[in-house]
Design brief:
single chain, alpha+beta, three-stranded antiparallel β-sheet, two-stranded antiparallel sheet, 1 helix, about 10% helix
Length: about 90
Amino acid sequence: MPRTPERPRRITLVRNGPLLVEGPVEVIGDDGSVAVSRRFTVAICVCRRSRSYPWCDTSHRTRCKPASDSPDSANWTAGDRRRAGEQR
């Protein structure tokens, strides 16, 4: 996909959320697969919970907000623990 030099591509970091990228974009996966979106803004998943990865489907919202006095893993939902076990 050709890139125009008029202005730089804008990427917005969302705390506990996706990367918002001005489109259109091509995303090349670590396995060499290419995903293309022609939308004007694209949400790229960074937590890898999305069922439509690399596109964000808001699956990151299923994780509980961290409590200040407990370890990170204690704040996971049952689905997070199940997915983490599947990845190991």
